[in-house]
Amino acid sequence: MSASGGTKAIVAALSANLAIAVAKFVAFLFSGSSSMLAESVHSLADSGNQGLLLLGGKRAKRQATPEHPFGYGRERYIYAFLVSIVLFSVGGMFAIYEGYEKIKHPHAIEHWYWPVGVLVFAIIAEAFSFRTAIKESNPLRGKQSWGQFIRRAKAPELPVVLLEDLGALVGLILALGGVGLALGTGNGVWDGIGTLCIGVLLIVIAIVLAAETKSLLLGESAGLDEVRKIEAALVDGDTVTRVIHMRTLHLGPEELLVAAKLAVQHDDTAAEVAAAINAAEARIREAVPIARAIYLEPDIYDEAAAARGTNPAMTPSPDESPR
């Protein structure tokens, strides 16, 4: 994800959510609708989430230190994980509590035009934010489906904003449905049911976000296309004849570690091998610019031993297949 693209989507979402949160809370004060209160807390939580994403992006740009020699790129993953926790605790659980209380103690909605007007305004604002996130994501998504993009994206910001905005739009529709049914039937229980549905929706989105960002925190390999480019760049067919082992790891969304054991000719001199390794590093950086840390080890490949299976280190392990 380009920094500018992600930041633009986050700022658009933050601006929309702050305006919507204020409008929803005013509508709650005038109408007493629990759906409006849940939605105002939801928008406030989303605003905090976008603030966390911006903070994580800023902190991730710090230079590497002796204590953190690979830099701070993963801070973007940590703050994205915090977003999922905030969305769950502040947004989802509060909405479920409010919905339960409204169902248990229902009351009529007053000044109906406030919640209805604010919900319509919020849907328009959230649609604008969602459209911005989609527009910024499309160049990176390529031919992937949206589900694949969210699962495979190494930069967490755009998937987080996409899911937040989608959840906000669906939540607003649920709130509008709850308020509409409460007004049409004169039964405030429907308002509480709408609030409960919003809470369940937010918890589901929070779980999805937590699962995806947890995987990034644990450390994910490079994508299949990048792995193929690196493998092609490593082998020159002269001194480097094949890749014996290779491991890749994202140190951050735009920082990749590459470690590989390479087969070289047994009769090459140390100077020839060193030159071949340096050339391979240069080819990797040209093919995959985000490869920042590269560690290459030359070795002699024993094809006969590998075929007999007496030396497993001579061949890639089954679990090394590119994802």
Automatic annotation (TrEMBL):
It comes from the Bacteria. It is found in: Membrane. The keyword Transcription regulation does not apply. InterPro entries: Cation_efflux, Cation_efflux_CTD_sf, Cation_efflux_TM, Cation_efflux_TMD_sf, SLC30A9. The keyword Transmembrane helix applies. Keywords: Membrane, Transmembrane, Transmembrane helix, Transport. Pfam families: Cation_efflux (PF01545). It is a multi-pass membrane protein. Residues 11-218 form the Cation efflux protein transmembrane domain. Its main location: membrane. The chain crosses the membrane at residues 6-30, 77-97, 112-134, 160-183, 189-211. Gene3D superfamilies: Cation efflux protein transmembrane domain. This is Cation diffusion facilitator family transporter. It comes from Streptomyces koyangensis.
